């Protein structure tokens, strides 16, 4: 099997960390994909042209990252990063949804800079995304979640979201979210795949 992603993508990072914590490294390779290149097979593999995509051994594909994590968990026997206990499962999926939304808002701000010249930046749109980021981080800072062994899909996604926040907007997390900075350090210490999947500089 093959994960196609860029090495800077926080959604791709989720899937790479999941492969490692589930002990699937020997079964899943990672290959670089480029969302902006129309000749990259990505648009045939996912009509949305988004990464990550998981290419299965029969050539069929899966997306998006929550679906890929569900598939990987099943492959590893189930109930590992998606708890079977209903209350814990809903809690993990809700945390995943919040952290995915946080990454979406961060990425939309990055794309505003990437795809529009500075004079065309839409402040109302940027403020709307920033509000999502601020509220999500405030809610998480007020009550940082546990870190299970292995981490749940929610905890993996939160680590990737905080890592992306720090990668794109260095220093902001330290300034406003000291408890989440501590949480992320703890996560990195417990889950070696986090450091191993750091985005490349630039
Ligand atoms: N909901 C998707 C989001 C994936 C996503 O937004 N990926 C970004 C890169 S980090 C992307 O492919 N952007 C290109 C595009 O939107 O065309 C997931 O969880 O996999």
Give the names of the bound compounds. glutathione
Question: Which value, in Å, is the CA radius of gyration?
Answer: 17 Å
Helix content: 55-70%
How is the largest sheet built, in terms of strand order? Answer: 2-1-3-4
Q: Quick one: how many beta strands?
A: 4
Q: How many individual domains?
A: 2
Assess the beta-strand content as a share of residues: 5-15%
According to CATH, the fold-level topology of the largest domain is Glutathione S-transferase Yfyf (Class Pi), Chain A, domain 2
* Element pattern in H and E: EHEHEEHHHHHHH
Largest sheet: 4 strands, mixed
Helices and strands: which structural class?
alpha+beta
Shape: globular
Q: Low-confidence parts lasting 5 or more residues at pLDDT below 50?
A: none
- What gap, in angstroms, lies between the N and C termini? 28 Å
Summarize the structure.
The protein contains nine helices and four strands; from the N terminus they run E-H-E-H-E-E-H-H-H-H-H-H-H. The chain has 202 residues and is α+β, with helices and mostly antiparallel strands. Helix 6 (153-168) crosses helix 8 (178-190).
Overview of the molecule:
This protein folds into 2 domains: 2-75, Glutaredoxin; 86-191, Glutathione S-transferase Yfyf (Class Pi), Chain A, domain 2, CATH 1.20.1050. The protein has 9 helices and 4 strands. It has helices at 10-21, 42-45, 65-75, 86-115, 123-142, 153-168, 172-176, 178-190, 192-196; strands at residues 2-5, 29-32, 53-55, 61-62. It has a 4-stranded mixed beta sheet with strand order 2-1-3-4. The model has no long low-confidence stretch (mean pLDDT 97). The site of glutathione (GSH) has 13 residues, from helix 1, helix 3 and helix 4.
């Amino acid at each position: 099997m093959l994960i196609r992603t860029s090495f800077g993508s926080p959604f791709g990072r989720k899937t790479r960390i999941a492969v490692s914590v589930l002990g699937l490294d020997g079964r899943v390779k990672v290959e670089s994909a480029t969302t902006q290149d129309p000749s990259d097979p990505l648009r045939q593999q996912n009509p949305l042209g988004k990464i990550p995509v998981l290419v299965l051994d029969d050539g069929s594909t899966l997306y998006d990252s929550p679906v890929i994590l569900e598939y990987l968990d099943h492959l590893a026997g189930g109930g590992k990063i998606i708890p079977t206990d209903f209350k814990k499962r809903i809690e993990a999926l809700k945390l995943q949804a919040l952290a995915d939304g946080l990454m979406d808002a961060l990425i939309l701000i990055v794309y505003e800079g990437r795809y529009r010249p500075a004079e065309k930046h839409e402040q109302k749109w940027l403020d709307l995304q920033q509000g999502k980021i601020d509220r999500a981080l405030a809610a998480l800072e007020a009550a940082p979640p546990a870190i299970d062994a292995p981490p749940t899909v929610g905890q993996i996604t939160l680590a990737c979201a905080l890592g992306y926040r720090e990668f794109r907007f260095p220093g902001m997390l330290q300034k406003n979210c000291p408890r989440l900075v501590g949480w992320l350090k703890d996560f990195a210490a417990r889950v070696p795949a986090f450091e191993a999947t750091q985005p490349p500089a630039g």
